[in-house]
Amino acid sequence: MTISMYQASVPVFQRQLGNLDLILDKAAAWAESRKIEGSVLLTARLAPDMFTLTRQVQIATDHAKGAPARLAGVAPPKFEDNEASFADLKARVAKTLSFIGGLSAAQIDGSEEREIKLSAGPRELQFKGLAYLVGFAMPNFYFHYSMAYAILRHNGVDVGKTDFLGRG
Length: 168
Prior knowledge:
The chain is mainly alpha-helical. It has helices at residues 10-33, 38-42, 53-72, 86-101, 105-108, 129-154, 161-165, and strands at residues 115-120, 123-128.
């Protein structure tokens, strides 16, 4: 059995973004139950030189929308990066899910050799589709998704492996 580029991307992002949405619910409820301002968690980071929870979620969703879009040969939507609450972050996750849910397997399958070009800061990066997905987009998505989870766990939010992976 082979796995298609669509199967290796969109459903994976959909599942993990769904988990992220639930993790954000848990974080908001945890903060509220302890009468802690949500901004305390939203601005939390694991180390002084790392991004905040909000930025980790923004970047994770950027990779989740960017990868399928680029594989499909369409421009990813631009989000303003102005989220200031858990509700805002959840809305961003929902917008990402809505966008990638509108991409079809026919648009993405066969993109293994598609030329992918993007900017990362001052650098211009070039990939073939498969190398981009498995060597750049997925690792970056999982890194930032993991950091969002880790920030919340580090701050005491009751999340565990099942929250991160989802219930099968």
